[in-house]
Write a structure and sequence with these properties.
Layout lengths: L2 E5 L5 H9 L21 H6 L7 H14 L4 E5 L2 E12 L6 E10 L8 H16 L3 E4 L5 H9 L3 E12 L8 E3 L10 E4 L5 H8 L13 E6 L3 E7 L2 E11 L6 H13 L4 E7 L3 H8 L2 E12 L1
Helix pairs in contact: 1-3
């Protein structure tokens, strides 16, 4: 048997989709949540069951976007068959984060788990990070104990804790703002609000790589203001709510930024805005803004 790692191209979409399908125990209708056959799902339904990797056409468009970033997905290929995939994003941010490489997903075909394929894909990321001058690998692993054990064994440990909170949209005066485009990714600022994965990946969610009714048609606005870069995106399953993002100068106060997101939410007709905040700052903000807890996120890091 001959196992090799290589860069993926959009032609690899069927093989990558098969890897992700192998770990999907049941397909569900995204609206009723009832089990259904895969063939009964439209493209939005397939995407809702795990992202663009669940549909070959969407996966090909996603892989094309990665190529445009200059960091195509890495696949593990065994005798011509794909058995694993990893995707990395290069982050160049102000200190204290600096340059890092973010592992956004790592999947190994269910038939090949536990045989070292995942470790090889991570070590490929380590080599890439060193080549690009990154000081660390970061990732956001699932909460499952076996997953976290895997990352711990491969040199990762928790480093960034965040809490997802919800706040009511409230009318208020808004700062002057200039609309931005996808080409305007703010490399001079830190993704401080909405850091579910990394800054580049969050930016991409605001401009999807594919046209998909129910996702790419959601309302979205991105603006540069005197506070930093602020963004709102309508939630896929609740048009009354939006997700808020903010790229800010290091150590910028969050209260005026959150108030601006509340005001933007009201202007756009939303009832509430969900924001992922650094956990250490939530206690000081929770009472002032009447924040309601939704979820928690923990990012892990491997220093190089």
């Amino acid at each position: 048997m001959s196992l090799r790692l290589r860069a993926a191209t959009p032609v690899d979409a069927p093989g990558i989709t098969a890897i992700h399908h192998s770990q999907q125990p049941v397909w569900r209708d995204p609206r009723t949540r009832q089990p259904v056959r895969y063939e009964a799902l439209d493209r939005f339904g397939r995407w809702a069951n795990g992202g663009p990797w669940m549909d070959e056409g969407l996966c090909a468009a996603h892989l094309q976007r990665l190529e445009e970033h200059g960091l195509p997905a890495i696949v593990a290929e065994l005798d011509g068959t794909l058995i694993g995939e990893a995707e990395y994003y290069l982050e160049r941010e102000p200190e204290p984060l600096g340059v890092s490489l973010h592992l956004s997903i790592l999947y190994v075909h269910a038939d090949w788990q536990g045989r070292g394929v995942g470790r090889l894909l991570i070590e490929a990321g380590v080599a890439l990070a060193r080549e690009l001058g990154a000081a660390a690998l970061t990732t956001q692993p699932e909460e499952a104990p076996r997953v976290q054990t895997f990352y711990a064994r491969n040199g990762f440990s928790p480093w960034y804790h965040a809490l997802e909170m919800q706040m009511a949209a409230r009318p208020a005066p808004l700062p002057e703002r200039v609309p931005l485009t996808r080409a305007d990714l703010p490399r001079d600022l830190l993704l401080t609000i909405g850091r579910y994965q990394c800054g580049t990946q969050a930016w991409d969610t605001l401009w999807p790589a594919f046209t998909l009714e129910g996702w790419s048609t959601l309302r979205c606005g991105v603006w540069r203001t005197e506070l930093g870069v602020l963004a709102l995106r309508e939630q896929a399953f609740d048009p009354a709510q939006a997700d808020g993002y903010a790229w800010l100068p290091p150590a910028a106060p969050l209260l005026p930024v959150l108030q601006a997101l509340q005001a933007l939410g009201a202007e756009w007709g939303f009832q509430a805005v969900d924001v992922l905040l650094p956990a250490a700052q939530v206690p000081a903000l929770r009472f002032a803004l009447r924040l309601d807890y939704q979820n928690q996120i923990v990012l892990w890091r491997r220093q190089l």
